[in-house]
Structures are given as structure tokens and as C-alpha cells.
Amino acid sequence: MYTTSQPDPVRLEIFKNLYQFIAEQMGIVLQNTATSVNIKERLDFSCAIFDASGLLVANAPHIPVHLGSMSESVRCLINDQGDTIKPGNIYLSNNPYNGGTHLPDVTAITPVFLERSKNIPSPLFFVASRGHQADIGGITPGSMPPHSTTVAEEGIIFDNFLLVAQGDFQETAVRNFLLNHPYPSRNPDQNIADFKAQIAANERGVQELGKMVKQYGLETVKAYMQFVQDNAEESVRRAIDVLQNGSFIYEMDSGSKIQVKVIIDRENRSAKIDFTGTSAQLNSNFNAPKAVTQAAVLYVFRTLVDDNIPLNAGCLKPLEIIIPEGCMLNPIYPAAVVAGNVETSQTIVDALYGALGVMAASQGTMNNFTFGNQKYQYYETICGGSGAGANFDGTDAVHTHMTNSRLTDPEVLETRYPVQVESFSLRPHSGGKGKYSGGDGVIRRIKFLEPMTANILSSHRLVPPFGLNGGEAGQIGRNWVQRQNGTEEDLGSTATVEMQPGDIFVIETPGGGGFGANILTPPS
What we know:
Shape: globular
Mean pLDDT: 94
Low-confidence stretches: none
Helix content: 25-40%
Strand content: 15-25%
Number of helices: 9
Structural class: alpha+beta
Number of strands: 20
Strand order of the largest sheet: 2-1-5-4-3-6-7
């Protein structure tokens, strides 16, 4: 019999990998059973497992902005539903004011009751999968409106909605909910198909946890959930040991700013991350829900750890995060938030790296491109340059930091939608020069074959991604439309535009910043 008071190093490694493996298995089921291009091709989803109190234990290497915030959704469900959570129930949640990120990211949460624990009234664990829906209503197709001012304009809010009641799928209720809204879903059949895929993914997680408990015993599985979190906590404390105090002010295209100060407490091996001084809540949709801000902090400190640990709740233990209520990183309902999740999250990460002095800014945007009409809705994020660091160059044409999705295969995109990928290429010399240079962005040209509404939600079209320690800034991005008659229309960071057959939407993404002065370049 193994003791569960102290972790055995070998078993710790085994359990760490087992928990991650379960989340990966869930992801495979979700990808294989989903309908939308978004989940099936772009892999814009995340799966994770949680302990009885809703704390993140382990996840697959999916989307960082999802993973750091899902725990908040699970804990809100526990607080909200508590004693009413029964075996066979599954809940839907996307409320940005209850642990959600933005409305298209809908989380299915399954409480785990195991056969042998029938006499235990509350769940032993939770599993959850979050998928970006191609459309969840709102004022523009694709539910990523560039100019929303309230969260209601961004789509439908599920707040611990009972999707499956003791094994019975609530199809009529969920369909009515998707349609009964001032800005209803444009494709409820696809939503429901993807929700069913999330249910299937969660079911795989339940089965695998059941196998684990059968093999190792419930006490051991629960104990190692705690040990895995303790191990992550200690790894982050070791990373904090070598950090210095720092601060940074990061200005965005809109003129709003993110201000952060990092104060290291050597004695307690902890860090205070203080966002006091950040701009107040905005009238635009660049407000980041508190869960997103925490996810960005969690991500940064996880990347500073060299050990192979799962991103989990333990990483947050050594961190005190101060986010004033009513600022753009902790807005008050009903503030619009759709860009906060995808754009402001990237800014928070770069501001933290700037404050810690470890890395120049990456492209700092996801270049969110949506298009559609009543029949088609499509969403993609577009890669750019990553920032250089103290001993490495940036990378060309990658998704950076808070996103980790693929781009839809051109054949799939052109088969499913009336568009053509005219070209997709590197954008030479767009990365900032330095001792270590930033990565280059890309140029993506999409030609429309039918009339559709297209939307771009992006950043760094006015303010370049910063260089550090004498490195140059990366080039700003640019959005424009080439009309069929040859005229060009310049667009800002955020825009909605009507596309006609033959028109081409062009997105040039920013480069990453350079790090360190380039001694080969003579001073100007």
C-alpha cells in the first residue's frame, strides 16, 4: 500500500501524465465528433479535469486563455447549483461574468460521480470542455462584432444552463434558448451538434477517471490531484526566486493603457501582480473579464517554469493578483467583452513580459477575422511574429501566447464556404531588428465569391509591438479591402465591411519586437 501523505516521485510523474492524458483523450473525442470547422479543423477548443472544489488539476496543451479561466466557470457552477448537482447532469456556461471568456466560447461541465460512490452526495471531480462556437447570435455573423457596446449584442449567455438532466438531453430547451433572443443564433443545428460533441468528450473523461479510480483507489487519485497542484506551486516559486521587481505601461491602439507592477517577495517566494492604474472600463468591447486577466497571469508564470508541469491551480498559489473592479481588466456587467478575451489578453501577457524584462512584445493580436450571412458563418485567427528574448530570436508566422489554434486547411475552407484563399505568405522584414530579432508576420488575402459581411477585430494597427533592451519594435499590421474594380479601402483595427463577389480582404499581421541592441547597426 502506498502512503498518500507524501508523494512518491515516480508516482507523481505517472499521475501528472495520466491526468494530462485524460484531457488529451477528451480533446481527441471532441475533434472527431464536432461538426463546425472551428472545432474540427481549427482546434479552437480546450479540455481539462478539476478536483471536487473545481480547481484545475490538468489539461491538454490546448488554448491558454481557455485553460486559465475554466476553473472559475466550474467553481461558479458549484457555488450556484451546489446541492442540486445530480449524477447525469451536464451544464453549459459561457457567462463572462462567471468565469467565461467571451460568448462564443461555450463550456460543457460534467460533474463526476462514480458507481462506487453512490452514497457520496457531491461530485468527486469535474471534467469540462470549452469550444468556440462558429455563431452564438449577436449583431454580426460569427459572434465577434467589432463594435458591440454591451454583452447582449455579442450573443446568447448560458449561465449554468442544464443541458442534460440526469441523462436526458434537453434539446427542445436548448434550441428555444438559442432562438429566443434579440440577436438569436444563426445556426442552432450546428450549435447543438457541437454541444453533443462536448458531451461525448466529457464522457470520455468520466470513463478514464473511473478507470483510474478502479486501478489505484479513490484516496490515491484524490491525493495525487493535490500533489500535482503542490508540485506546480513549488515550480512557480522556484521561477519567482530569480525574478526582479518591474513595471510596465502598455498603450493600445484605442489610447487605453494597461499598467502593471510586479513586486517580488523573496522571503515568501511569492509575487504581487498589481494592475492599479489601468484604464477604466471601456465603451468598446476590449474589456477583459477578470477570469481572462487571471488566465493571462497564470500563463506567463507557467512559461517561466522549466519543469514539465501541467498548467493548474497550483501555479496561482504564489501569486497575489490585484485587479481594481471597474477597470478594463475587471469590468462590471453588462460591459462588452468579445475582444477582451482575444486581444486584451495578449496585451496583458506582453505587458507582464515587459515588466519582467524577459521578452519583447509578440504580434499582440489574434487578428480575428469573421465573415458570413444567414447561411454561412466562419471565424479564424491569423498568425504573426513572436517577440525575441534574452537569448532567442522570435518566430515567424505563429500563433502566440493566449491562442494556440490552427488555420483551416485551404481545401476545407474553399469547400465549405464561397471564398478563395488567394494567397497566404510571410511578410518579410516585419519583425523588429535587434541582437535577437522578432519574428515576421504574414499577409493573408481572401477573395469573396458571394455577398457577405466581413469583420476584423485586431490590434497593433497604430501602436507597434515593443522591442526590449534596445531592440526595435515590430511593424504594425494593416487591414484593407481590394475591391473588384481595383480601388483600395483602408480599414482600422476594428471594422465591419460588406463584401461583394470579386472583392479581396487583405490582412497584414504585425511582427514581433526585437531584444537587445544590434551592435552591427551603426547609431543613426
